[in-house]
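Researcher: Here's my situation. A collaborator sent me these components and asked whether they could plausibly form a single complex. I don't have experimental data yet, so a predicted model of the whole assembly would be a useful starting point for our discussion.
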Amino acid sequence: MTDATAHDRAAPLDPGMFHPLCPSSAVPFRVGDKWSGMVIRCLQDGPRRFGELRVPLRAVTPKVLSETLRAMERDGLVTRTAYDENPPRVEYALTPLGRTLIPLLDAARTWSETHLPALLAARRAAGRPA
Amino acid sequence: MTDATAHDRAAPLDPGMFHPLCPSSAVPFRVGDKWSGMVIRCLQDGPRRFGELRVPLRAVTPKVLSETLRAMERDGLVTRTAYDENPPRVEYALTPLGRTLIPLLDAARTWSETHLPALLAARRAAGRPA
DNA sequence: AGCGCCGATTCCGTTGCGGTAACCGGGGGT
DNA sequence: ACCCCCGGTTACCGCAACGGAATCGGCGCT
């Protein structure tokens, strides 16, 4: 069964990595579309298939994921490779240009770990001056 | 006339700094709302008045600027100080928390200077495969 | 024949950001 | 009396993003 082919598939994606309650949902940064940043995270350890991306991004519908990937492909951030097999297999991978965004995402994450609690606290304090 | 009071007002804002044709309009990053990043840039050298912010951000209407500033105030990124004078004067300034975002903006700008041309080129190449 | 897999695409509806235009209020100038 | 200044607010609107549900197409399995 283990069709471990030549694809240097990285570890399976953690289904919980982009849980809707994850603070990253509230982060005041965005790279491109709403999901682009998460897609980059999913691809940073190697190519992934469409259905594979849907696991951790289960909040995204196939339509939106498809749109996101197409836009990223247009911008030269990812490559799309379709294998003429059955069932069809399509792999997405980061381009070198796409990889240059990873440090930005790291910086955003670091900022969030450090300062997001303060921001959320301020928002809560201001939200209910009652 | 020079009512140079104790306000350590920085150099006047460059009216052209956020020209609509500026590449920053196409940058695939955003900090908070559409205008938040630019507001931070305007405030990084010292407090500014509402009307003063409108100069370089002449593309933004008072409503949206007001909304942006209010949201940033809620999030603890800027402070709002109203002086009971005539004509009314209101000053906005970055909080320490707001200042922590400046390195992020710097990183985004650096990325853009380095890689944005490649992204735009890819987009152009893909946009017209005719 | 019928079902399922994978990778989408199409139609349709909602939401909300962002934009336009108009107005307000109070003092001061002329 | 009128208008201007400043710093907004309010009402209205359009568009693009986002989302849900359904469908497609080729193939293999049963």
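Model: Some features of this prediction you could bring to your collaborator: Residues 102-127 of chain B form the longest helix (26 residues). Chain B touches chain A at residues 28-32, 36, 73-77, 97, 100-101, 103-104, 107-108, 111, 114-115, 118-119, 121-123, 126-127 (CB under 8 Å).
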